[in-house]
């Protein structure tokens, strides 16, 4: 069934934010973006604003394609483009600068595919996606600068104050110390903000990162 909300435009005090569904194909997003921009083209004409892409991580080529679609149907003057990619790169560089010299964290740049596994006695930071069938096991925290759809086990040596965070949290299984939880299917669909999981009163709680 076709969903009109794969691409959502929102006006903010900082400019225009476009929220993309993380699950559907890039081609579907392009089709809906073109339809919505064409319908609302005059609304954006001669507007000078910043533009933010949220909800999904795109390659540079995909970002360029999206911007071309917007430029094709409107005379909007875009002063700055903020994407998940440039925010992730900034955060990744900061984390690596602060933590790597002390061997406190293992950095992995790139997505993990089915069958791949990372195990480290400290914290693990992945700049990419953790796909179904991939697994991360860390003695400390787990930070995913991408989508978490595989298995994640933080605090594997009994550290109950460890946490797991991800830009998009939809793991097959999530474990902190010896506490295990599975995400309901309804929590694995549609756009949502970055989240983190932690232990409180012997249970795993998941909250949005604000």
Describe the protein:
By secondary structure, the chain is an alpha/beta fold. The protein has two domains: 7-97, 2-Layer Sandwich (Transcription Regulator spoIIAA), CATH 3.30.750; 101-208, Pectate Lyase C-like (3 Solenoid), CATH 2.160.20.70. It is 23% helix and 38% strand. It has four helices and 15 strands. The chain has helices spanning 26-39, 41-44, 60-73, 84-99, and strands at 7-12, 15-20, 48-54, 77-82, 105-109, 117-120, 123-127, 135-138, 142-148, 151-154, 164-169, 173-176, 179-181, 195-200, 203-208. The chain has a six-stranded mixed beta sheet, with helices on one face. A hairpin with a 2-residue loop joins strand 14 and strand 15 (203-208). It starts with 6 loop residues before the first strand and ends with a strand. The model has no long low-confidence stretch (mean pLDDT 82). This is Probable septum site-determining protein MinC. Residues 108-206 form the Septum formation inhibitor MinC C-terminal domain. Keywords: Cell cycle, Cell division, Septation. Belongs to the MinC family. It comes from Anaerotignum faecicola.
């Amino acid at each position: 069934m076709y969903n009109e909300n794969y691409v959502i435009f929102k006006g903010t005090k900082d400019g225009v934010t476009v929220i993309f569904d993380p699950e559907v194909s890039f081609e579907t997003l392009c089709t809906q973006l073109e339809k919505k921009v064409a319908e609302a083209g005059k609304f954006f004409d001669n507007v000078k604003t910043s533009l933010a892409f949220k909800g999904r991580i795109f390659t540079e080529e995909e970002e360029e394609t999206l911007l071309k679609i917007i430029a094709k149907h409107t005379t909007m003057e875009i002063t700055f483009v903020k994407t998940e990619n440039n925010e992730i790169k900034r955060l990744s560089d900061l984390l690596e600068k602060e933590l790597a010299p002390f061997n406190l964290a293992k950095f992995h740049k790139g997505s993990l595919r089915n069958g791949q596994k990372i195990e480290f006695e400290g914290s693990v930071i992945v700049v990419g996606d953790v796909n179904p069938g991939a697994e991360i096991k860390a003695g400390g925290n787990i930070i995913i600068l991408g989508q978490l759809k595989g298995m994640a086990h933080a605090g594997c040596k009994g550290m109950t104050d460890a946490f797991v965070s991800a830009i998009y949290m939809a793991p097959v299984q999530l474990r902190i110390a010896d506490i295990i939880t599975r995400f309901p299917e309804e929590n694995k669909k549609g756009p949502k903000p970055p989240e983190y999981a932690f232990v409180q009163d012997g249970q795993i709680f998941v909250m949005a990162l604000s």
